[in-house]
Amino acid sequence: MEILNLKGTEDTPDILLDKKNGIFEISGRSLPEDSAEFYKPVIEWINAYAGDANPTTEFAFKLEYFNTASSKLILDVLSALEEIKGIKVLWYFHDDDEDMEEAGQEFSELVEIPFEFKTY
Amino acid sequence: MNFIYELHRTMMSQKLILVYDGDFTQETTKSILAMAERNLDSSGEGSGIKRKVFNVMVEALQNIVKHSSEQGTTAGSLVSKSAIFMISKDDKRYCILTGNPIPKSQVQKLTDNLNDLNAKDKEGLKEMYKDIIKNTQISEKGGAGLGFVDMARKSGEKLEFTFDEMDSAFDFFCLKVNISREKE
User: Fold this and answer.
1) Closest-CA residue in chain B for A12?
2) CATH of the domain at B127
3) For the whole model, what pTM was predicted?
4) Which structural domain, as residue segments, surrounds residue B72?
5) How confident is the model over B31-62, as pLDDT tens digits?
6) Strand-strand pairing, B16-22 and B83-89
7) What DSSP string describes A60-114?
8) Residue B73 in this model has a pLDDT that exceeds 80
9) pLDDT one-digit tens code per residue, A77-94
10) Closest A-chain CA to B28
11) In this complex, do A69 and B143 lie within 8 Å of one another by their Cβ atoms?
12) How many domains does chain B contain in total?
């Protein structure tokens, strides 16, 4: 499967989805003008991956900030991840960022995926 | 040219640290955010408060970007796409202040929405957020309908708002979001 690698900008996150090396990560800032358009290839990649997934998948969210339009799309990404067997979400937050921790907890209540919370 | 000094004095007396008036796009949003961020960094503000200010700024700015396009078609009227964005700072709080034209037909609905938000406590806002995010679709304008809810949650205070009459079709919607600088 091809690697999806999007370099982050001032308003979009870094995205690295690499089946072979088992790296699945969204990190940085997400406040694009058109969040649906931005996350479309990500969701398509995950849907394709779900059909031929690794035995276990640890999907990392290491977000510094996201806007509300992105939060809707992050939920869509998580919903796509629900289809994958052996999936686990690693939700990273700065140890003094209660809002990001709470956001992760809220997402974990909205989908049927195990979340592990980590600080960085 | 007296207005220059007058404007300067107004900015000082209102403790405004940033004012932008004009057209709003994603590009201007990014520039304003970068400027405000530098300002917050150099003032040594705590990271928690900095993040909340940044958060509210993004939602406020993107609200204006999304909704200002509606005014583009009213050629020849007083109403333009022009809006205003400001940040004030004193010892106790930051305020994110915005003003933009909205069609009179939307005033009642917006008033009801904001009053509804203001009637909710922390838990109520959280439930509302989760309810909207589960059920909403991204609109044509790219909004999730979560902006005001998120601003209210990050602020922890009531959203203050007024409408000023512009002409027969439009009112000027003014919004003030407070972010306390005092530790919780």
Assistant:
1) B30
2) 3.30.565.10
3) 0.91
4) 2-180
5) 999 999 999 999 989 999 999 999 999 999 99
6) antiparallel
7) EEEEEEE-HHHHHHHHHHHHHHTTSTTEEEEEEE-TT-HHHHHHHHHHHHHSSS-
8) no
9) 999 999 999 999 999 999
10) A33
11) yes
12) 1
